[in-house]
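note to self: dont lose this again. the chain is below, predicted strucutre after it. 600 aa total, dont forget to put it in the shared folder this time
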Amino acid sequence: MFCRVFLTCIVFSLLALNAASDFAQEKPAIAGDYTGTLGPLHLKLHINASPDGSLTGSLDSPDQGATGIPCSNFQFDGTSLNFGVPAVHGTWKGTVADNAHSLNGTWSQGNPMPLVFTREQAFVAAPKPSAVDGIWLGKIKQDSEELRVQLQIKSDTAGKEYCTFDSLDQDVTGIECANVAFTDNKFSFEIPAGHAQWSGTLSADGKTLNGTWTQGTPAALNFERQSTAITLPPVPPPSYEPAVAAVSLAQLRSVLDRDLADAFKNGELAPSTHVGVTIGVVDHGERLVFSYGVAKDDSIFEIGSMTKTFTGLILSQMVEQGKVKFNEPVRDLLPEGTVAKPGGEGITLLDLATQHSGLPRLPDNLNPADNKNPYADYTAADMYAYLKKQGVAKPAKTDFLYSNFGFGLLGQALSDRAGTSYSQLLNDEITGPLRMTDTVITLTPEQQARFLPGYDGRHRPARAWDFVAIAGAGAIRSTASDMLTYLEANLHPDKLPPTAAIAPDGKTLQAALTQSHELRADAMSGMRIALAWLYETDTDNYWHNGATGAFNSFGLFNPNADYAVIVLANTSVGRSGALADALGRHIAQRLAGKPALVIR
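---
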């Protein structure tokens, strides 16, 4: 899960109909499924039409394991179309062409990029639905709660069955099923995105599907036929507060108190959510740390994928110390015999650190015993077993492809070379020299007392995550104060505290930090990537975010403007996006004197 680095909200701009037209034109029917590509990423757009003519939809990024991202605020005038996907911060604007066979437009997420969606081959329904076709609703127990699961099944003229899968209480809809089969009243399907499958039997009266859901541990999951589908409420599009003069650090708290007034009453920061947020800002050398909700200034949070920036810096440190090389094949760092030498070029450490390895987001042998703690039992042996099957050959074309597994592999490989654990490596190379005593993998009893309880995207209690082999991708826990120390070091590598050089591996830290900021490859639209850090070409911001099942984080530093922001929250990503991301960008926009994203 960690984070959705690519997908943001998509907003289309509506153009007025030509008032001089002699005849009103009938709008083409645009409901359907569309595919498109943005660089290396394959996208799927699903548009649905209600009886009243209103449109809803969702967006999938299968390469990143992101499906059912809600779209919002669809508007369509017969020629131009706009809609939003508030979980992320991008825009699409375009026109409908060739009787809705294609949507031609532009994706903006920093710098604009062309993005054309093409309608998939039209589905032709069977003249007579099969016995299993229809809408089905079931509930699956997960610990002490029940999650509603909805299936929508249909068959075509050739008798082939299709289905989509909705996990309604997790705000995930429209996941496409694979290997759907219905024979002799036996029905089955798979959900590749979740490494899950269901198989069972249609009852004699055709009203129930009784069977077993397997995603790790098998569990009973029965469905009852429904007359109508449950739809989730639309997500409002993003909006912006008017720009004000660049806010000083002394003014920031009072400005945020005003900007967040509605969020405190009825939104993400209302008392009923149990949300706690700690914010750290450094501006031209002045520091400020403050908190809202249940958080305190020294509260500890999971930082999720912000861990990747530490792993990137560890790599830079070990390069400076002559222990590894950027162009060294990762295979050479693993235990002998782990994976066969590829016939051509192999994946290097730099490929992993810049998300250009071609490795998938997650391995296919990740089968957690506890889905609420999905990485706790994924060991180095599991990682090596997957690599033995997957191999480490570098694809002929290696575009940006966000991979949690890739960064987990990088952290494990560096630990193998150093002959120590990732936790110890983190302390030796970064947190020890910078004296970041609250930035750890495993908490002491005293730190555990400051570790906030976490909540999911709907503000229900959720458990913390534990990591073994994939620690380098998301295992770190920290405070805003410690993270501000880290961001200050990134802002000014030449101003490290003198104590940093006293540590055995601290002498190379200044050079390693500078080296870790070098832009090495293209990332997504309008961005490049250094060692894990993403760089926005239009703002000069270096940033990364993170999310686990119960926390989210956002960090940003801008050497040119000389400020940095860290936001830590004890809630995961919801349908409208990540609170830490939105609040972090809001603060950066206020510091820069720009319109600021509204926090709901």
